[in-house]
Amino acid sequence: MGELAFLHRFGARLNPHGHFHGVVVNGVFEADGAGGARSRTAQGLGSEGLAEIPTEVRVRLLRALARCELLEREDVQAMGAWEHGRSFSLDARVRVEADDRRGLEPLLRYCARPAFALERLREIAHGHRVYESVRPGLEGASA
């Protein structure tokens, strides 16, 4: 199995929002007998199995943070009970075939995009710039 992960530190409004975007291989690589490798698509992982992954990742991550003494056990228990603790999510709707380079490029560009999009920055007066959000903020403000 393989994955390419991208760490993002900000949200669309440049607010602190640490999260990962990942591109994961749907299967495994195995030797092909000629010194190379071939990929085999994973079988039997349906929507029910995919739905269990975020919960399992959350539980294991919190447990690892406690084991490494980066979080107190009481904090891990409290965080495990948080209503929004289900913010671990998995979006498996996008699928790109192994030989589809034209489909893979926009996905990787999306995952690797910088936090600060220059096309959203505009000058409103000499020396004054505003950064426009893609989504309205408080009271509908977009800047």
From TrEMBL:
<protein>
    <recommendedName>
        <fullName>Transposase IS801/IS1294 domain-containing protein</fullName>
    </recommendedName>
</protein>
<dbReference type="Pfam" id="PF04986">
    <property type="entry name" value="Y2_Tnp"/>
</dbReference>
<dbReference type="GO" id="GO:0004803">
    <property type="term" value="F:transposase activity"/>
</dbReference>
<dbReference type="InterPro" id="IPR007069">
    <property type="entry name" value="Transposase_32"/>
</dbReference>
<dbReference type="GO" id="GO:0003677">
    <property type="term" value="F:DNA binding"/>
</dbReference>
<feature type="domain" description="Transposase IS801/IS1294">
    <location>
        <begin position="2"/>
        <end position="130"/>
    </location>
</feature>
<dbReference type="GO" id="GO:0006313">
    <property type="term" value="P:DNA transposition"/>
</dbReference>
